[in-house]
Amino acid sequence: MSDCDARGERDPVEPPGLALRSIDHERRYVLGYPVHVAITVCADPPGAYLRRLPWPSWAGNAGAIGVRLVRSDTREAVVQTEPSPVVLPELGTPMFVLAPGACRRMLIDVSSYLPAGLEPGSYELAIVYDAPPDRVESAPVPIELAAPGPEEQRELQRLAPELARAGSWGRWTSLLPEDRTPVEVRVEPGDPLRFNRIVRHLIHGPDALCDIDPDVLDVLDGVYAPEAHGLRAELYAARGDAARFAEQAAIIRAWYPGLAWWIERIEAGQSEYGFIGACRERRRGQ
């Protein structure tokens, strides 16, 4: 069945629903930059089959994410937003299916929920995921929101026109530069924009996926470590390196099963990154 199929009727005695298994996050974020966290949701009970689940991601939250942000010292609620997903495939809502026994890890950016002028400091963050008729909320996790340093502030000012044109860091990542030049990038460890820069390079860089050195992904530590394995799998698949691809696939299935869907798409020839790379090569060959 496709992601667009309606969910089946629930057992009136023991209706299946969702469970939020985990929330993965950084200890420290820089204000003005993405605030990426990853949530993993599973069917409850595990044998249930759920369809038409809105699919938030680093590219956009599909209206399915809400945020609770509280100051650690005063317990003041700074942000309390409610999700409002519109689960309509005809409107382009990204959706997915949870097959029996499966979970889904979703890397999301909640920086757009933070108010302008938010003070640096220690906070507690909780994430709400809404997939009607189900809604799940994570336990609050401690984070630090730090003021940008001088170099980080200069970079924010440099990128401000591009970010304004895109509207969000997720759309900036996918957006072709205005002058249509390939995106050359050198990413340093600890760069608060490292994930977005690397993905932007994969999409709009001058090199085909098969020519990109997988070592560029070494900077994707912390909350990005599971996705780094997925991106490595993409690059090895593009190179036709079956042994190294299988190694990354095994790591994901053993340690990050919430990303197993990604490996399945690569294996089925349905990888979005592979499609983008192939299209880019076809354009150059014309």
TrEMBL record:
Name the UniProt record assigns to this protein: Uncharacterized protein
Organism, as annotated: Sorangium cellulosum
